[in-house]
Design goal:
6 helices; globular; nine-stranded mixed sheet; 210 residues
Length: 210
């Protein structure tokens, strides 16, 4: 009898996981469709809740700056799903960057000397770009369905605290986007912003945020 109950429990767990994966992919598809139209979205990232758009769409990026009331001199972070995608948007990825990405336990954003193929507004004055290879299943699915990088900036007015959970997001932000991802809306798992380091091709490393 115990074995039968165990089998039933295993089947239920497998069914629940399958349903969860289907829901994740469905919602990632809806978000990607919105991004392809040039829309901006609210979505849960591998760190805090974020505002996102197609990172190659300059008009969409400008809309996010306006929504956050953020100075356009402050570049925003970009998410990619893999090192292969990263290499398409950085002129040179230092070998140590790959080692850091593969060894990282927590989310890590790396600022590279020369970004390319991204909306100009996402580059710092020196041409550098902050990019994170995300391991979050939803964010990876979103990048893969869009087939381009996505902007990942905290869902808050500039200067205000980051929103760790959906219920912390200000109404001005929720009303200002075109679509809100219906994923992890009720999740209250504690998450923190990523660490940020600047990694130059000459090997110089600068910690910008521990």
């Amino acid at each position: 009898m115990k074995d039968k109950n165990k089998d039933v429990a295993n089947v239920k767990a497998a069914t629940d996981e399958s349903a969860k994966q289907i829901n994740l992919m469905h919602e990632a598809s809806k978000c990607a469709d919105a991004l392809k139209k040039g829309d901006i979205i609210l979505y849960p990232t591998d760190t805090v809740w974020g505002i996102g758009c197609d990172a190659t769409n300059s008009n969409a990026v400008k809309r996010i700056f306006n929504l956050k009331k953020r100075a356009d001199s402050k570049a925003m972070i970009v998410l990619v799903d893999s090192i292969a995608m990263l290499e398409r948007y950085v002129e040179e990825v230092p070998e140590v960057a790959c080692q850091l990405i593969e060894a990282a336990v927590n989310p890590i954003t790396i600022v590279y000397d020369h970004g390319r193929g991204l909306a100009p507004e996402l580059l710092a004055e020196d041409g550098s770009a902050g990019i994170r290879v995300t391991t979050d299943p939803f964010c990876r699915a979103l990048c893969r369905k869009l087939r381009r990088p996505i902007v990942s900036t905290s869902a808050n007015i500039s200067g205000m605290p980051s929103a760790k959970f959906y219920h912390e997001i200000a109404i001005d932000i929720t009303k200002g986007v075109d679509y809100v991802a219906q994923w992890r809306l009720d999740d209250i798992t504690s998450r923190q912003p990523s660490s940020v380091i600047k990694l130059s091709v000459n090997g110089e490393v600068t910690i910008l945020r521990p």
